[in-house]
């Protein structure tokens, strides 16, 4: 494995992890969004897992900066191994992941640093933002902060509430103190922070087991520009799962967990419903003393129906999943089924309203 570490011995404040594979056409935008930050105390760790050994390397070479550290893998790593490869090379006090399809908003690190410095034992999360325009908006100078207990965050996840989607510290929407990441690895049952099946959620559950609390920033820290989001090529595993792409099947084949184990205990047992994979990681990685929440059946079923609706709009054959969903609804009894229907209707109306508001902002 080759690297180009040109950093002083003292670590920077931020380590930004950029694991990438076969996306050399967009990774340059992510790199430049870091280089253009007004905050200068950072390192960018690019873990290049491309099948082609030169494409991403050439993109990195075209953006020279001594703070960029390039790691070349074998080109055959699984997603969680590639993420872990970047993390093990990081030397910063705080660590965040930037996907190749994402961009740091202008001045995001300067904004983020002040929040992190005040909360050395907390997780810091921010929303997943799909930008309405190519010219990205900076966070506000006065941050809008909300503080949550780790138990409350996990409780929202168990209900699959809209609030959970906003605040949960997925690796792609959070910044973490390095000392918590080190503790998480020491305690991990797999030896990984970014463990299988879903590395971004697996790390979140482990860190929620350890952190003091979570600070959520309702500000654009990382964003996906519309040119990437609307590209013909699918840059999302979640979307690939809902549309049953061959790339998603290949991703599942890289995970050292059988599909039967992935779906054990799930009311709607389909690998094409991403909540099932996340629930597996929740059950295996969340270990906060004295807190043993369970998955809310109606909230889970409503989330799965929302996914199936979206998949149908994208033209996916969802008939097998609908049969499983119907069986699950009947199995929970009439009260649970009614609760699911109410949640599904409310969340659908909320999603339509948010989409309409986002259209107006454009």
Structure summarized in a few sentences:
With 362 residues, the chain is α/β, with parallel strands linked by helices. It is built from 16 helices and 12 strands.
List keywords for this structure.
alpha/beta, disordered N terminus, 362 residues, 9-stranded mixed sheet, 3-stranded mixed sheet, 47% helix, Spore Coat Polysaccharide Biosynthesis Protein SpsA, Chain A, 16 helices, 2 domains
What report would you give on this structure?
This protein is an alpha/beta fold and 362 residues long. It has two domains: 2-227, Spore Coat Polysaccharide Biosynthesis Protein SpsA, Chain A (Alpha-Beta Complex); 296-362. It contains 16 helices and twelve strands. The protein has helices at 24-35, 55-61, 79-89, 108-118, 150-159, 162-167, 178-187, 199-208, 226-229, 237-242, 246-253, 259-262, 274-285, 297-313, 319-331, 334-361, and strands spanning 2-3, 14-20, 42-48, 68-72, 94-97, 103-104, 123-125, 129-130, 145-148, 174-177, 214-217, 222-224. The strands form two sheets. Strands 1-4-3-2-5-10-7-11-9 form a nine-stranded mixed β-sheet. Strand 2 (14-20), helix 1 and strand 3 form a beta-alpha-beta unit. The longest helix is centred in the C-terminal third of the chain and has 28 residues, at 334-361. The termini are far apart. The model is unreliable at 1-9 (pLDDT under 50).
